[in-house]
Amino acid sequence: MAANEVPSEVRGETRRKASRYVVPVAVAGVAAATIGLVPALAAAGDPDLPEITAQQLIEKIAGSETQTLSGTFKVSTDLGLPALGGLASGLGGQGGGASTADPTQKLTELASGTHTLRLAADGPERQRLTLLDGSDEYSLIHNGDDVWAYDSKSNEVFHEKGASEGPGAEKPEGKELPATPKELADEVLKAAGDTTSITVDGTARVAGRDAYQLVIKPKQAGSTVASVKIAVDAANGTPLKFTLSSVEGGKPVVDAGFTKVDFARPDASVFAFEAPKGAKVTEGAAEEARKSEKLPKNFEKDFGKDFGKDFGKEFGEGFGGFGKGLNVLGEGWTTIAKLDTGAPAPKTDEAPKELQGLLDSFGDKVTGKFGSGTLFTTKLVNALLTDDGKVYVGAVTKDALVEAANSGE
């Protein structure tokens, strides 16, 4: 057994959704906007820290009381995809008159390349993230009920009111989540089961802070994930570094990190925002609905209740065939989602010219007992589309997908 590895007898099959308590609220809130990344770059020289077990380190993360911080960090993402070039513009680009400041569009840039960001957080109600791109700047500010986004390049502003209201802000129903750090650590280790190794692998110096390194590795063969490494602040338990490595080697799939971090409370002015003179301001859908005098007073509440009930019923009945075609194969790190569309796969030569080039650049023809199909690959997630309309997708190797297809399950 590796040093500090958690014994199998303390892990089990229980899988409870408690991960949202692992990272302090202030960090996690902004991390969600940056595809879950709140990491750091390690400096030279590993600090000499007291030994700690994986369970104790998870407890330290869960028990962290960090609510305030500010800092600068870099995010590097390498999925191994070919350059998309002018695909977006070739297929029509951004349409519908959408604002260039809309976070749902702008933050997708973090899915590739290297970016530098500034981050500030003051509890769950106030966060600010600024994406720097040369002389241009993109800022996303959450301050109470308001979310503002500003794109300096286009001088456009996106505003959404009521960020803390609505169903998304309600506490989900279901089983009670662990109340203490130790209970949470126990649940995390149980959820790992026999498929995962969780260990403490040395220390690191991150943005001037001493940190422990928590390493998570699949025990199963066939996963594309080699390891997930998280550097945790030794003093306050805040995650500082996140590195996701692929079995293919080379650059990490995700490598992001603080170059500076300060846990003092940021000044309130950091979260204040006023649209610059002459900027185009686009209101989000919720705010536009509030401004419409044609809507009844309780429209949002009643509509949401009735629509959710009726749509769920109609969707289930109308698309029941689609849902029935979905099957989950395997478990843990080698889970594969299989979808039987019931229709032959579309021919790539019938797709738009720009899309044909993209598909051909990372699609490989394969054959097996299942027949023939096309493999679409990245360093993390792979997909097999068979010619008879079946789709196999997972963070597994190409061989694992072909084997799943050959099994006929």
Describe the structure.
- The chain is α+β, with helices and mostly antiparallel strands and 409 residues long.
- The protein has two domains: 8-270, Lipoprotein localisation LolA/LolB/LppX (outer membrane lipoprotein receptor (LolB), chain A, Clam); 325-407, TATA-Binding Protein.
- The chain is built from ten helices and 19 strands.
- It has helices at 25-33, 54-62, 87-90, 103-106, 181-192, 285-291, 299-318, 320-324, 353-362, 398-407; strands spanning 42-43, 68-77, 113-122, 126-133, 136-143, 146-151, 156-161, 196-206, 209-218, 225-233, 239-246, 254-262, 280-283, 326-329, 336-340, 363-368, 371-376, 382-386, 390-394.
- A 13-stranded mixed sheet has the order 1-8-9-10-11-12-2-3-4-5-6-7-13. A six-stranded antiparallel sheet has the order 14-15-19-18-17-16.
- A hairpin with a 2-residue loop joins strand 8 and strand 9 (209-218).
- The longest helix has 20 residues, at 299-318.
- The two termini are 35 Å apart.
- Residues 1-44, 84-96, 165-172 and 311-323 have low confidence and may be disordered.
